[in-house]
Amino acid sequence: xxxxxxxxxxxxxxxxxxxxxxxxxxxxxxxxxxxxxxxxxxxxxxxxxxxxxxxxxxxxxxxxxxxxxxxxxxxxxxxxxxxxxxxxxxxxxxxxxxxxxxxxxxxxxxxxxxxxxxxxxxxxxxxxxxxxxxxxxxxxxxxxxxxxxxxxxxxxxxxxxxxxxxxxxxxxxxxxxxxxxxxxxxxxxxxxxxxxxxxxxxxxxxxxxxxxxxxxxxxxxxxxxxxxxxxxxxxxxxxxxxxxxxxxxxxxxxxxxxxxxxxxxxxxxxxxxxxxxxxxxxxxxxxxxxxxxxxxxxxxxxxxxxxxxxxxxxxxxxxxxxxxxxxxxxxxxxxxxxxxxxxxxxxxxxxxxxxxxxxxxxxxxxxxxxxxxxxxxxxxxxxxxxxxxxxxxxxxxxxxxxxxxxxxxxxxxxxxxxxxxxxxxxxxxxxxxxxxxxxxxxxxxxxxxxxxxxxxxxxxxxxxxxxxxxxxxxxxxxxxxxxxxxxxxxxxxxxxxxxxxxxxxxxxxxxxxxxxxxxxxxxxxxxxxxxxxxxxxxxxxxxxxxxxxxxxxxxx
Length: 556
Prior knowledge:
Rossmann fold; 19 helices; 15% strand; alpha/beta
């Protein structure tokens, strides 16, 4: 955006103008000092003063350039720029005095250098901050007619977002206040915008200030914190948006100021997983990696994160040619330096599987191929046994026979006290890899709950039902499940794949289980609708093989 103060000047012209402007200030400051001291512009010491003035004109721009005064972006002038100006002024005054007296000129009254320096400081600092002030006034005018918003979070992210909104009118917003739970911040102003209260004050402030949208500016907020804010905001009927989460920012997937709607993954999120990132970075780069089920939701995310770690070769194996083709294209575009192969194959084909292992010679295998839908597997138990048990046996045997260093089996919480065919087959798969674990090939299993956004998960089903106008079907009002996001699941898998010694079953700390009824109602509200009024919620009863709650471990 062009500067309102100098709208038609290019950057280099503005850079050239500043030294010229400062030379004018040197003249004004020098004669101002003379006038303040002698109450006349032509005192008896004027011949000596001319030498001081000439030296000041020569040295001041050079010193200012040395301290970086002409490199600053003055529309963002702040206390740091004041310090730069003060440092430059101190260097310039000391150098002037040393050179002036070193050349043998007659002494001036001691007040002249002091007054000269103070006046020049005020003129230079005032000119820079006048530029910022003009921009501030311009930005305030530009906010008229924009949507009034509250920003939740008066930390670093909130300050940056607020500055962007006020400086450029970004997002079409007019920030009318900030919210923060730190009582010490209440009443302070950030860029002229007040901190109005805490999260408890949200409903009242939204109505009082005519707020049309609330923006959450806490990238590290947990699911519990976001749920609390969401519940307070939804009662007012205004929209809640958020800055990206820390994981998205760290992956470079998105810029911090790309606001998005609050989603279920935000409401269900938990404390950030502490990963041994150094170990992961050391373990996978330069390795040949193979992922079975590479076209599935977990397999695709595994492929994305592993490709970013620069393996020597990455092979994706799956029967779904369409998804395999799409993820292959995506990975090739995002990671052109990584050798990749997409393999259309069935893990039940033992001969082809062995041939592919021989050709690819993987050092690390992630086994994500499985049938996972409980009711469907209850009706098709033979296929569940073939794919989840025999398929795992084939993959594990191929890993041993071809010298794979490490094989990670992706399991489920339904393998604990299995009450259905799918859970039983996954428990047998865990026992298979534990039985084959040895010094040459180390096997570990990773067990987690339901994955939000995965292929065939409950969320897309609910979304389709909401889009169709309802009803949303829930099996039982009290049925509970553990949930996690796809990135969380993949992080656990990668961590387990690098730290396991062999034979272990790794379990993610899942936090609290979630009522599916609450999940459905939250999703309806996230779509701007009211459960029970705009969209009905209907209970259909537990399906064959389903339990009221899931377990992650076997007691004792």
